[in-house]
Design a protein that fits this description.
Length: 299
């Protein structure tokens, strides 16, 4: 199902608060086309019909549109930078295991201090439920709950490590390197690396890679954070040094916890005029997950 480009921009705007008013305005239209056809000039892809079939259309239309296409109001954008140097929060972990609302608050705090270091305001960009359904439909598997919660309430954020986009911007999976997707699609060259391994290791790597979805880019250097379709565990794909694949976290929430902690360490060091933020973060991470994992990630 396609929408006119202008209507799609209105619906996709971060400031959008009433999708029903946009879609039900006079003159608004949508066009259903076969998936093998290209969009008509001036139109852009919106929602697959298969995703629309997943919804319960018996509820009032305005209510359905708000639930599926609206943006979470949980975290409002900031108007100003919120802390003086002395007010920057100290590094800390949440009590384990963290409940989902507590974890969201912790990740939001990480985003706030990351924005503070850049002298910017924190601007969450939540993703609609419909967009997440499209993402899962294209991947052919559910998103890990922590990643889904993060994108639903906070959006795709560029921290020290960047989360890739949740959508393909109209392209087919595997044709947009900056978007979430199967590892072979996001990084086709990985199979050249696998081909250089001995046959037994190569067979194991092929099975492992087929199970992984890339959702993050480590410092923009092409090393990837991936989650397993099977159990949601997080794997680190390192194309520069062996091993190629390393299991690093039990779930994506651990990864987001680590990013928030790193931001807190760096922000406090900056606020206090110190340059040991990275070393502080490394010590915190090593205490929780061990120095071997941290060395693989950091070095």
């Amino acid at each position: 199902m396609d929408l006119p480009a202008a209507l799609h921009r209105q619906l996709s705007s971060a400031a959008q608060t009433d999708p029903g008013a946009i879609l039900l305005q006079p003159g608004a239209r949508c066009l259903v086309r076969p998936g093998t056809d290209a969009p008509r000039m001036g139109d852009v892809p919106w929602l697959p019909v298969a995703v629309l079939h997943q919804r319960d259309w018996r509820q009032p239309l305005a209510q359905l549109l708000q639930a599926e296409l609206g943006h979470s109001p949980r975290f409002a954008p900031q108007d100003t930078v919120i802390w003086a140097d002395a007010q920057v929060p100290a590094p800390h972990w949440l009590d384990r295991p963290g409940e989902a609302p507590q974890r969201l608050q912790f990740w939001h705090l990480g985003l706030q201090v990351h924005a503070w270091m850049a002298m910017q305001v924190c601007q969450p960009t939540p993703i609609s439920r419909a967009a997440l359904r499209v993402c899962e439909w294209r991947l052919g598997c559910p998103l890990p709950p922590a990643l889904r919660d993060d994108w639903l309430h906070l959006g795709v954020q560029d921290w020290a490590e960047g989360l890739v986009a949740a959508a393909w911007e109209g392209q087919a999976p595997g044709r947009d390197w900056a978007a979430i997707g199967p590892v072979q699609g996001v990084f086709p060259g990985v199979m050249d690396i696998v081909a250089m391994a001995d046959p037994q290791d190569a067979a194991t790597l092929r099975v492992g890679i087929a199970d992984l979805v890339a959702f993050g880019d480590d410092l923009g250097n092409g090393k990837l954070w991936c989650f397993s379709r099977t159990d949601g565990a997080v794997w680190y794909l390192d194309h520069d040094s062996a091993p190629l694949l390393t299991r690093v976290f039990d779930d994506v929430g651990d990864d987001l916890d680590a990013l928030a902690l790193m931001a807190l360490c760096t922000a406090q060091a900056t606020a206090q005029g110190r340059d040991d933020g990275d070393a502080q973060a490394e010590a915190w991470l090593s205490a929780r997950w061990g120095p071997a994992m941290v060395r693989k990630w950091m070095y």
